[in-house]
Amino acid sequence: MNDENRPLRERIESEEAAFLHRSEDEAARDPFGGVDFAALEHSIYRPRTAFSGLLSVVVTLMTLGALVPLFAVLIMLIWRGGRKLSTALFTELPPAPLEQGGGFGNAILGTLIMVGLATLITVPIGVLTGVFLAQAPGGNKLASAVRFSAKVLTGFPSILAGVFAYGAIVLATGGYSAIAGGIALSILMLPTIILTSESAIAMVPAKMKEASIGLGATGTQTAWMVLLPTAMPGILTGVMLAVARAAGETAPLLFTALFSNYWLSSGGRLNLMQPTASLAVLIYNFSGMPFKNQVELAWAAALVLVVLVLITNLIGQSFSRQQVQQ
Question: Could you tell me the CATH superfamily of domain 85-325?
Answer without folding.
Answer: MetI-like (1.10.3720.10)
